[in-house]
Amino acid sequence: MAKKGNRVQVILECTEHKDSGVPGTSRYVTTKNRKNTPDRMERKKYNPILKKVTVHREIK
User: Fold this and answer.
1) Nearest to 13 by CA among 53, 49, 48, 55
2) Angle at Cα 23 formed by Cα 21 and Cα 13, nearest 5°?
3) Whose CA, among 33, 41, 48, 52, lies 20 to 30 Å from 21?
4) Domain 7-59, CATH class in plain words
């Protein structure tokens, strides 16, 4: 039987990439604890298309 916990998989998408007009997207997959962080996550991650570190926000 599988364990049912508070940890869920989320997708982080770059916020600056949409505004730049460059084709493609920068996305990362990570996990978070629903109990500790109920609102959307926000992390600074590397965007290989823009070649710099940008803010990535959780999408649903």
Assistant:
1) 55
2) 85
3) 41
4) mainly beta
Distance CA 14, CA 11 (A): 10
Domain ranges of the chain: 7-59
pLDDT digits 0-9 by tens, 17-47:
888 888 888 999 999 999 999 999 999 999 9
Q: What do you get for the CA distance between the two ends of the chain, in Å?
A: 27
Q: What is the pTM of this model?
A: 0.82
Q: Is 21 left (phi over 0), alpha (psi -120 to 50) or beta?
A: left
